[in-house]
Amino acid sequence: MRTLLNILWLVFSGLWLALGYAIAGLVCFLLVVTIPWGIACFRIAVYALWPFGYTVVQRPGAGAASAAGNVVWLVFAGIWLTLGHIAAGIGFCLTVIGIPFGIAHFKMVPVSLMPLGREIVRSDAAYPSYRWNPASR
């Protein structure tokens, strides 16, 4: 089911989102000083391509530099990206078929609001107690 949702997401939303984040990442790399935000843009672009089965978690050891970088990101890009994901999420949730895609947009809000100091990991790695284990029966 996850694969089917990811393929449909890729067609209806993911490809355009990933392309936008990748272009923003390239612009950040061209401006040299903004390379950390460019890396974050590429990380978000990969997440935008295939969001189902992945989640965003806080990276242990992220310090004051990540917090300061997130404040700069929040002012210049984070608020606008977050509002876009919220608007798209609400739009998708207006239809019954689009609810999973709306939820995927809502899952992207934390990483688009403050991307530094976060990691994108497989959902089963983030929440190992929820994995099905046949030996536990």
From TrEMBL:
Residues 4-53, 69-118 form the Inner membrane component domain. Keywords: Membrane, Transmembrane, Transmembrane helix. Pfam families: YccF. GO terms for cellular component: plasma membrane. The chain crosses the membrane at residues 30-50, 62-80, 86-106. The keyword Transmembrane helix applies. The keyword Protease does not apply. NCBIfam families: PRK11770.1-2. This is Uncharacterized membrane protein YccF, DUF307 family. It comes from Streptomyces radiopugnans. The lineage of its organism: Bacteria, Bacillati, Actinomycetota, Actinomycetes, Kitasatosporales.
